[in-house]
């Protein structure tokens, strides 16, 4: 498993998914490498040419202070549209936990 750290401009991004306003993907790639994973197509949007889905994980680094919770009041947020939010390395890096804690108390629907 190749582990990388990647700077994320924004960890909560606008969504093109119908009825979803924003999406959170705390990681790029996956540790599981499930044979029937629908998210495998995402590899073409990464810098992992020649690697297989399930062989790499980019841990997104972001500034927690840049998340403005009130911006998401009344909005629908999809957690992890193309990665597992609770990968084994979540225990160490806690990206998912930090983001969700930042959204506690908002009117966002996650």
General description of the model:
The protein has 2 helices and 6 strands. The protein has 110 residues and is an alpha/beta fold. The protein is globular and about 40 Å long. It has a 3-stranded mixed β-sheet, with no helix packed on it. It has one domain. InterPro entries: MJ0683-like, rSAM. This is Radical SAM core domain-containing protein. Keywords: Iron, Iron-sulfur, Metal-binding. One of its GO terms (molecular function) is iron-sulfur cluster binding.
What is the compact description of this entry?
By secondary structure, the protein is α/β, with parallel strands linked by helices.
Give short descriptive properties of this protein.
single chain, three-stranded mixed β-sheet, 110 residues, alpha/beta
Series of secondary-structure elements, N-terminal to C-terminal: EEEEEEHH
Tally of structural domains = 1
- Radius of gyration equals 14 Å
Strand fraction: 15-25%
Strand order across the largest sheet: 1-5-4
Helix percent band: 10-25%
Task: State the secondary-structure class.
Answer: alpha/beta
Average per-residue pLDDT, rounded, comes to 94
Q: Count every beta strand, where a strand is a DSSP E run of 2 or more residues.
A: 6
Q: How far is it from the N-terminal to the C-terminal residue, by CA?
A: 30 Å
The profile of the biggest β sheet is:
3 strands, mixed
Principal-axes geometry comes out as globular
Counting DSSP H or I runs of 4 or more residues, the number of helices is: 2
Residue runs with pLDDT of under 50 for 5 or more positions: none
């Amino acid at each position: 498993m190749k582990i990388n750290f990647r700077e994320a401009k924004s960890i909560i991004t606008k969504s093109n998914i119908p009825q979803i306003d924003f999406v959170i993907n705390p990681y790029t790639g996956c540790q599981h490498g499930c044979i029937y994973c629908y998210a495998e197509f995402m590899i073409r949007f990464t810098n992992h040419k020649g690697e297989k889905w399930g062989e790499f994980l980019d841990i997104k680094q972001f500034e927690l202070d840049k998340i403005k919770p009130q911006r998401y009041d009344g909005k629908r947020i999809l957690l992890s549209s193309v990665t597992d939010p609770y990968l084994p390395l979540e225990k160490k890096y806690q990206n998912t936990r930090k983001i969700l804690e930042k959204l506690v108390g908002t009117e966002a629907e996650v």
